[in-house]
Specification:
Elements: H1 2-29, H2 72-76, E1 78-79, E2 82-83, H3 93-106, H4 108-111, H5 120-123, H6 135-138, H7 142-151, H8 165-181, H9 191-200
Antiparallel strand pairs: 1-2
Helix pairs in contact: 3-8, 7-8
Length: 201
């Protein structure tokens, strides 16, 4: 009788261990990691879409979220093929300072800090760009500079993929301020600045 009870306990324990093992096996077999999830690799054939392709081009005329560019002046610097004469948004003092920072990073290496075309890369043998302070460029519309920054001009490459639209306009605003600063008459300065100029002479 004692032996039967002991045998029954052993069988019960073995059954319990077997049940736990089967349950653990079942749980682990249903686990799916991100690495093992069903997916279609790029360019892998797929019957889901027509043409047996897994990667499709966007549908014609689709626009990404916030990607509609309906303001020609803002995004191209032109309206009806003419360069815009006005900035497409209000330029603040803070914006002008930010434009100076962007100019120093992206433009000064070639154009120099005052726009004379004597930047550091020019001093190292690269082609000299035209001075931003020459009459032709001083009289150019803001849209002209935005267009040149966006599309490139001569040896200058396009900066459209490096400088956001808003930042490009702020650089243009700083360029126009820089041009003004290089040609302003002392008598046109505020009284405080006139005093500073006189003190420095």
């Amino acid at each position: 009788m004692q032996r039967t009870k002991q045998t029954f306990r052993t069988i019960r324990k073995a059954g319990l261990v077997c049940a736990i093992f089967c349950l653990a096996l079942l749980v682990t077999s249903c686990t799916m990691t991100m690495r093992d999830q069903p997916r279609v690799d790029p360019y892998e054939p797929s019957a889901f879409f027509g043409g047996e392709q897994s990667a499709l081009l966007p549908v014609a005329d689709t626009v990404p979220v916030n990607g509609a560019r309906t303001d020609d002046a803002l995004y191209t610097g032109q309206v009806d093929g003419q360069y815009v004469e006005e900035f497409p948004f209000l330029v603040t003092k803070e914006g002008l300072e930010y434009g100076r920072q962007r100019y120093d990073i992206y433009c000064a290496p070639c154009h120099g800090y005052v726009g004379d075309g004597d930047g550091m890369v020019v001093q190292r043998g690269f082609k000299e760009p035209p001075s931003l302070n020459q009459d032709r460029l001083r009289e150019a519309a803001p849209g002209y500079f935005f267009y040149a920054i966006t599309n490139g001009f001569g040896s200058m490459p396009s900066y459209a993929n490096r400088i956001p639209v808003h930042d490009r306009w702020l650089i243009v605003a700083y360029v126009k301020a820089l041009q003004l600063s290089q040609h302003v008459l002392v008598t046109e300065l505020p009284a405080d600045d006139q005093a500073k100029v006189e003190a420095a002479q």
